[in-house]
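Quick start: what a row looks like.
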Amino acid sequence: MAVKKLSQKIKMLLVLVAVVGGSLALQRWANIEETIRVDGQTVSVIDGDSFKDATAEYRIYGIDAPEYRQTCKDAENRDWPCGKSARTALAEALRKGEHNCDVRARDQYGRMIVSCWTDDRDLGASLVEYGHAISSDNFDQVIYGREEARAEKSKRGIWQGSFEKPASWRASHPR
């Protein structure tokens, strides 16, 4: 009887250790994966051209990325989740180092329109150049015209096949 109770206690202890260890590992993994710092603040990415911190939302100046639920066509005319890809690209870019952002304006939704960079790399330029966004029609279109032309010529990101401009997609898919 004593051996059976001891065996049950050992099993319970092992389960407890596994649960606690698993929880700590998950928490550590989740924090590493989701911690993104901009101007010293922890932020979360909303979609391919916007993010938020605890107090405000931000939209990247001069670009328009596919919406999160938007799909595009690849080179073989198959659907691919370009909106999710754009969101992932922004998150990865923001994770690569501390970004500094300057507020340029506020949009009609109250979001701050920001230009962000790390070292000498402009975040908006990088997203456009790798085909995760286009140079926006709502802003001064020449800002990222060269980067957009390079992405289109190289068939990177959304330029690998066909896509609907994000503004047109939003108009035909109201929330």
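That is the whole record. The chain has two domains: 1-34, 37-172. Residues 93 and 123 are 8 Å apart (CA to CA).
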